[in-house]
Amino acid sequence: MLWCQGCPWRCGYCHNGHLLDPAGPGLLTWDAVLAFLVRRRGLLDAVVFSGGEPTAQTALAAALAAVRALGFKVGLHSAGPYPDRLAALIPLLDWVGLDIKALPEDYPLVTGVPGSGAGAWRSLDLLRAAGIELEVRTTPLPGLDDPAYLKRLMQRLAAVGVRRYVLQQCRPVDLLDPSLRARIRPLPARPAGASAFDQFELRTG
Ligand code: SF4
User: Fold this and answer.
1) What pLDDT was estimated at residue 49?
2) Quick check: 4 and 54 in contact, CB under 8 A?
3) Is residue 71 within 8 Å of residue 47, measured between CB atoms?
4) In Å, how far from its chain's centre is CA 169?
5) Ligand 1 pocket, 51 CB below 6 A?
């Protein structure tokens, strides 16, 4: 897994606040990453770019191509804030884990950014249309986690063709907004609406 710096959003439950600044000091140079991967050829099957938001990096396409050229499969974790950039990356990807945080109209409650839901849901449409292997995940924000809301969200996702879906428990550690900690509650093990997917998983760890 490679963690990329930068993200245009500021979700209160973000655990990677140290990665959000695109100009913050990195831990490794790209040359050092490639040298590491050269030594791992034949030992690792795939490399997943995560973050932060990897698509915030303008050099991401070149990085994906370089990793593929070494013979690795390539995965991407994204929240989909840049649908046009994501669309251009699809030919370089084998798998995408896409965060869908809420119904489109509720995104600003999660990300702090007006209009952010339209981009994320457009990214979902583009990935579905491309037919790439896709896992959609939601970490419900406290306050957007009641069973009726989750059911509406899942019904909407199933209606646009999502087949593999993961609900992720918000963890009370390293939160960008520590005031959320007291409002986190356990997710239901089998929420209404989960049966709409071919594959459903509740991730609590
Ligand atoms: S989109 Fe992801 S990386 Fe960006 S602030 Fe939200 S949780 Fe953190």
Assistant:
1) 98
2) yes
3) no
4) 14
5) yes
Q: Going by C-beta distance under 8 Å and a sequence separation of 6 or more, which residues neighbour residue 145?
A: 170, 185, 187
| Among 53, 55, 82, residue to substitute to test ligand 1 (most atoms within 8 Å of Cβ) | 53
Q: Which residues contact 200 (CB under 8 A, 6 or more apart)?
A: 165, 166, 167, 194
Are 84 and 112 within 8 A, CB to CB? no
pLDDT in tens, 57-113: 999 999 999 999 999 999 999 999 999 999 999 999 999 999 999 999 999 999 999
Q: Is the CB of 56 under 6 A from ligand 1?
A: no
- Residue 113 phi/psi, 5-degree rounding, is -120, 120
With a 6 Å cutoff on the Cβ, whether 52 touches ligand 1 is yes
Question: For residue 20, what is the enclosing H or E element?
Answer: none
> By residue range, what is the domain housing residue 163?
2-203
As a whole number, mean pLDDT of residues 139-166 equals 97
Q: What is the CATH number of the domain that holds 37?
A: 3.20.20.70
- 150 in Cβ contact with 124 (< 8 Å): no
Closest alpha carbon to 144 in 37, 4, 11, 16: 11
3-state secondary structure of 115: coil
Dig out the tokens for 110 from the structure.
Answer: 């999660």
Contact 117, 102 (CB under 8 A): yes
Looking at the structure of the chain, the number of domains it has is 1
pTM: 0.96
- The atom of ligand 1 lying closest to the CA of 110 is 6
